[in-house]
Model the fold of this input.
Amino acid sequence: MADAPAGPDLLAALRRRTPELLAATEALVEVESPSADRAAVARGAGRVAEVGGRVLGAAPERLDGGGWPALRWRFGTPRVLLLAHLDTVWPLGTVARWPFRVEGDRATGPGVFDMKAGLVQGLFAVAALTSREGVELLVTADEELGSPGSRALVEDAARGAVAALVLEPSAAGALKVGRKGVATYTLCVEGRAAHAGLEPERGANALVELATAVLAAAALARPERGTTVTPTTAAAGSAGNVVPAAARAGLDVRVADVAEQRRVDAALAELAAGRRVVPGTRLTVAGGQNRPPLQPSASAALFARARSLGETLGLGTLAGVSVGGGSDGNFAAALGTPTLDGLGAVGDGAHAEGEHVSVSALAERAALVSALVAGLLGG
Done:
């Protein structure tokens, strides 16, 4: 049976390690790891392995996450899964103009909030356990892209776990008890080019057809059900005096439940098969579901346990919120594994210039995760 020091003692022990938590966070931030750059994330994985090896006294297993590197620390037969990712949205060169720095209780730097500080907190949480038997920590490198390569690794790990704890950043300190499902689509229209001044009637305007399709797609939103359908990117035409022969637009769809995900998907397929407004054009819809919803029922019991432990640790009453963004926790929850998200850093500014974390909360959240893991392993 695993255990950790009693509440206040555990927190005090980790608070004494705050300088180490900060140094480890800085070490990860200074090695940039944009998701789409395979060489960069490989370097980032090397740094995580180095830092994690020092903290845990054990080297990770190096895995192939569908072309991206992944790391796994596994102690005995896994029962509790910790999920983290090392990739960020920031391009190479960002850290040169925006280096890691600490000002008062705020530490800032590219990727510090989402989610390098949370990854460090997870390492120190596992290190604080009296016994690590039954713990698995999986670190992937393509989460910001939707986990195209590592999804199978996440799902395989989640299937055998009694709980999945996700080290994504908190929402203004609140744990994430629900996440929307995510789907992305591209509306593609094929038309026919013609001279826009001499004989526009001989063309089939793909842009006009796309405009009507985008409006129809956006109308599928149901805010009262938590469903958003947001047109995002668009491109059309080849020159200012040519009827556009091709046009395309991207859609971002977020839903709170599976039924809504299916409704929107079916409606877009029907839109593609329907009659065109502009004769001679053809609409196709590419894409689909990326992440299923993480519904609050998947996290309810774990959140109740976390709130109780928060009180024991002297952290006050923890809040829980549902958010629109997805994470690898969505995959775990969809398999029926109890899943609690947002256990990472306290701070703000994910994916935005100036993202930051609370220095004092590093030890607090590491203690919460450590106590949560110990309790789960203890029954």
